[in-house]
Amino acid sequence: MLTEVTATRYVTPLREGGSLPGIVEADDLGTYVMKFTGAGQGRKTLVAEVICGELGRRLGLRVPELVTIQLDPVIGLAEPDQEVQELLKASAGLNLGMDFLPGSLGFDPLAYEVGAAEAGKVVWFDALINNVDRSWRNPNMLVWHGEPWLIDHGATMIWHHNWPGAQASAAKPYNASDHVLAPFGPDIASAAAELAPLVTEELLTEVAAEVPDEWLAGEPGFETTDQLRRAYVEPLLARAGSIHERILMDEPTRTRPSQAPGWLTDHLTSWPHPTKKDRDAPAAAGPNSKDGGR
């Protein structure tokens, strides 16, 4: 099971998402982004965070460490926001924490470069879990110590909101046209060859076991939490072997204005981005090349 800690101080809410996560300090001296069982999206969001986040970590992707956090709502009594107070009261007990990455920046595809190999792994992984929330509109990626990190996997495995249709939903293709890493020429075939064999029944059973029983109990149509865990394993296992053949990638629907500072974007080109090899080519050609004197 995930490491369990106890919240000791509620620091501040994060108002970038609809679930109103908050930064908390815990008794292990760690600082976490806390996601609440009492939030509007419900506990299935936390289940998806655990299964997909832990799966990503085991596949070698950068996902912040996850923990479960015991919350006593009394720690938020000094919080003046009534909405936050109500959320804390509704979330007494076990909640989810994601390791806080101090100094991290939101990923902007015009400000950071990602290689085709890494982009391919992220796109393939998002296709596997049917992540509808890693587009240029909302990248759900951070840059920390110069490397991209994947966060916020609550909007994944959409089939678990309608278990009778799970098999049909999991068989659908994945449209990556608006994926934030689509401009970097993701090498999906290589990613599938490397990662798909790792997604075994044993691995998926292992990550499903990380979900606390209390977030699974009482699901309609399932007599036990073990049955429900198995229901999470089966669609992902079936999807892993062939989803790379059903990833759609066309021109993005529209261009997103960069959030990077002007001094940086003035020196960047629009989609699709040139690779590092493309940018180095003029210099490598030397002063006698056709464009060398420009």
From TrEMBL:
Enumerate the InterPro entries for this protein.
HipA_2
A Pfam family matched by this chain, by name?
A: HipA_2
Per UniProt, residues of the HipA-like kinase domain are: 14-240
Ranges where the record places region Disordered: 248-294
Q: What is this protein called in UniProt?
A: HipA-like kinase domain-containing protein
Which species is this UniProt entry from? Streptomyces silvae
Lineage start: Bacteria, Bacillati, Actinomycetota, Actinomycetes, Kitasatosporales
